[in-house]
From TrEMBL:
GO molecular function terms noted in the UniProt entry: ATP binding
Similarity-based family: Belongs to the ABC transporter superfamily.
Superkingdom as given in the UniProt entry: Bacteria
Organism the protein comes from: Plantactinospora solaniradicis
Entry protein name: ABC transporter ATP-binding protein
Subcellular location: Cell membrane
Domain ABC transporter: 6-243
InterPro entries linked to this entry: AAA+_ATPase (IPR003593), ABC_transporter-like_ATP-bd (IPR003439), ABC_transporter-like_CS (IPR017871), ABC_transporter_ATP-binding (IPR050763), P-loop_NTPase (IPR027417)
Swiss-Prot/TrEMBL keywords: Antibiotic resistance, ATP-binding, Nucleotide-binding, Transport
Topology with respect to the bilayer: Peripheral membrane protein
Length: 317
């Protein structure tokens, strides 16, 4: 039997007009998705796609305008408090108390959930260890690096031992090393049976962490599936990336087209993408035509290519 933890059908979030000239804004425009127990589910999309709005509805802090949303079998409009007791929420903004110590930040949160002192203390120790912050427990939050603060926010959101952890852009603003440490912690949580829902505009993060994801654009789902399925359906296996000198890209593109290249060629402001099963064979054609790119790189197709194929735009502006 499948165990569906979150189910959305034709879910809509419309914000009312803010003034008389404003007509309001539909941030989420009729989306369907479901989260199954034990999986990591992602919302991938550019800024403004409606990811945070969707997360806020699941977190029961913003009611849906219309459609059906069930979280842990309950209706967020009516049973928000009961749902929240079984959720962990990691917002984009850490909202930690900078004046308090690392440990105090955890304890305060435990009290918010009305947990007994002894339970909070035990979980606090375990969570500090999980967040690799045991040594820093007595330090004030302002002394921590960005990556440590994120790990503390995640630890704090786990104090009530949630079944679902919601993470809104968990690694935005972190350096690559801090991101990898955080991914490792999230993998660990998944192994422990926590179901994850996360938003991201980083395709590598979505590929690394998500079993399944939906690609959102302007409040609508443009595709959904596992990262591998999405790439297989919407892209070729390989991509040849070519960068040319100023003013040379247009001529190169024309030459490739005149030479009868039938593969998809995508022109971005700074590079030309050639979607092909065999990047090396394509590169040989480039050389045979006498084209001389400044750089030429064959790579595996990624979710970035999926997004480009579906929307005509790149994910990162
Ligand atoms: N309270 C609000 N009132 C009016 N419009 C809003 C409100 N909150 C969000 N929006 C708009 O809804 C759209 C979707 O916002 P949302 O935050 O859900 O997108 P997002 O995909 O999470 O992007 P980001 O990564 O920038 O947070 C944006 O254009 C935003 O300006």
């Amino acid at each position: 039997m499948t165990d569906v933890l979150v189910q959305a059908v034709d879910l809509v979030k419309r914000y009312p007009p803010r003034n008389r000239r404003d007509t309001g804004f539909t941030a989420v425009d009729g989306i369907d998705f479901s989260l199954h127990r034990g999986e990591a589910f992602g919302f991938l999309g550019p800024n403004g796609a409606g990811k945070s709005s969707t997360m806020r509805m699941i977190a029961c802090v913003s009611p849906p305008t219309s459609g059906t949303l069930r979280v842990l079998g309950m209706d967020p409009r009516k049973e928000g408090q009961r749902i929240r007791a079984r959720l962990g929420v990691v917002p984009q903004d850490d909202a930690l108390d900078r004046e308090l110590t690392v440990r105090e930040n955890l304890l305060i949160y435990g009290r918010y959930f009305g947990l007994p002192k002894q339970v909070i203390a035990e979980r606090g120790d375990r969570l500090l260890e999980f967040a690799q912050l045991t040594e820093r427990g007595g330090e004030r939050v302002e002394a921590l690096s960005g990556g440590m603060r994120r790990r503390l926010t995640i630890a704090r959101s786990l104090i009530n031992e949630p079944e679902i952890l919601l993470l809104d852009e968990p690694t935005t603003g972190l350096d690559p090393q801090a991101r990898h440490v955080l991914w490792d912690r999230l993998f660990r949580l998944k192994q422990q049976g926590v179901s994850l829902v996360l938003t991201t505009h980083y395709m590598d993060e979505a590929e690394q962490l998500c079993d399944r994801l939906v690609v959102l654009d302007s409040g609508r789902i443009v595709a959904q599936g596992s990262p591998a399925e999405l790439i297989a359906t919407h892209s070729t296996r390989e991509v040849l990336e070519l960068r040319f000198g100023v003013g040379e890209q247009g001529t190169a593109l024309e030459k490739l087209r005149d030479a009868g290249v039938h593969d998809r060629l995508e022109e971005l402001p700074d590079r030309l993408l050639w979607y092909t099963a065999e990047g090396e064979t394509a590169l040989a054609v480039v050389h045979r035509l006498g084209l001389s790119p400044i750089t030429a790189m064959v790579r595996r197709a990624s979710l970035e290519d999926v997004f480009l194929a579906l929307t005509g735009r790149t994910l990162v502006d």
